[in-house]
Amino acid sequence: MIQEVYEGDKRLNITATNTALVSGNLLGVLVASSSTGTLKFADVDGTIVNTMSVAAGTFYRIPCRFRGGLTVTVGGTLDATIFYKL
User: pLDDT digit string (tens) for 16-72?
Assistant: First the structure.
C-alpha cells in the first residue's frame, strides 16, 4: 500500500516583505530566483531566523511554530514560496 506523505498544505509566494500569515507551522521556503537576496523570519516572540543570504533553486527547511503574525523581511531581489500549515 502506498501512503502519501506531506508536511504542509499551504503556500504563499512572496517577492517583497510580507506579514500576511497570522499563525501556524512553518515548513520552509523555496527560493526560485535571487539576486543578492536575503530573508529574515520573525513573529511576535522575536526572531525565528536572522537575516540569511539565499541562493536560487534552494529549499531552506525551517520547522517552527509561529504565532501573532509571521514577518518575512526581504532584502535584495528574490522570488520565494513559503510552505506552511495552519
Answer: 999 999 999 999 999 999 999 999 999 999 999 999 999 999 999 999 999 999 999
Q: Cell triple for residue 14? A: 512572496
Entry pTM: 0.90
Greatest Cα pair distance in the chain: 46
Local structure of 27: helix, strand or coil: strand
How many other C-beta atoms can be found within 10 angstroms of the C-beta atom of residue 45? 10
- Written as one string, the DSSP assignment of 50-69 is EEEE--TTEEEEEEEEE-S-
SS3 category, 8: coil
Q: Kindly list the structural domains of the chain, giving each domain's residue range(s) and its CATH number in brackets, ordered by start.
A: 10-85 (2.60.120.340)
